[in-house]
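Ticket #4471: structure export looks truncated?
Reporter: QA, pipeline team
Priority: medium

Steps to reproduce: submit the single chain below to the structure queue and open the exported record.
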Amino acid sequence: MGLTATRRAKQLVMRPLATALRRERLTPAELTALRPARILVVRQHNQMGDMVCATPALRAIAETWPGARVALVTSPVNAGVVRHNPHLARVLVFERPLRRLPAFVRELRRWDADLAIVLSSVSFSLTSALIGLASGARHVVGAASRPFGWEFSEHCFSLQMPASPTVDTHAIEHGLAPLRAVGITTGDLSTVVVPSPAERAQAESIARGLELRPGCWVLHPGAGKRQNAWPAPRFAALARRAAADGHQVLVLHGPADQEALVAFDSATERSSASGAIMIAPACEVGVAAALLEDADRFLCNDTGIMHVAGAVRVPTLALFGPTDPGLWKPPAPEVVALRGAQRGDDPRGPEFGWMESLDEDTVWRAWTALAGRAALSRDG
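Actual output as written to the record:
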């Protein structure tokens, strides 16, 4: 059975369920006039960068209903991104396998939300919609499913928010657009990642163990998408140049970065300056954010940690290839984007071959040209 036929079969099964779960209809004016005591926001997509870009949407919800307590349903990989967000009273983690579903639903119902808001991404998540409906909230508001090829939301949501699968404006604006269309908005588009005191203490312990001085230079050679990765040996070359100039260099990495880390480490071991280049232990996103708070500058690919760096306002050079920095670069002025000028021939497909056009000297000049946190602190 092909994908279209499979989706058609799912639609036939889900339509009666959606109708059975139908919520009381609302207009946008009636929505914003509500005075909910508790709100549930559902955004259980896995991409870290997308979650950071969604934090202004959380602010918009909190500002629209300042008297409400807000809980967020998210995935395990993103729990650390939002766990200490000032606009949230609670974070609920949705994780598989399905044997954990009954306990999750009980926790969801205990939140006793008056209003559930299902946020959209570049796709319609049937799982997210069902979580919102399973919450027991009297009103469930979410993205219209039809632009994504699903006939679902019109049968059950109290109010459909217009949504689009195409990111044709900045990702933050794209995520906010459905909310703004129904009167939920904010004038502050800055993103938020807040390390906890325990995470800052863990970062300090890592720094002591590595004998890191304040103001080290930090880089991250990995990327969630291979087409967004600048070659790891080139990161190593820049680490050696920074170390030769007297800077300590700290390398951050995540679970998906092992291939890049091995390539980086192999290139670095041949350098006499490698003693000044230190690999951080694997750590949670909040700990990585705390380490970046003490960094002078940061170098990374277009990937999730780039958005964390923008949220903590560390001077950052972000390397872009196939993706448009006008749509995805963090809005913080401390973040500078450098994009590959042209695509080289690459048998892997049209999204590959961009990053390789960035040469080491060009990236080095741009990285060293950043003001650096120490200079920004003096100017401030």
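Status: closed, not a bug. The export was complete when the record was re-opened. Leaving a note from the reviewer for reference: Residues 3-181 form a domain with the Rossmann fold fold (CATH 3.40.50.2000).
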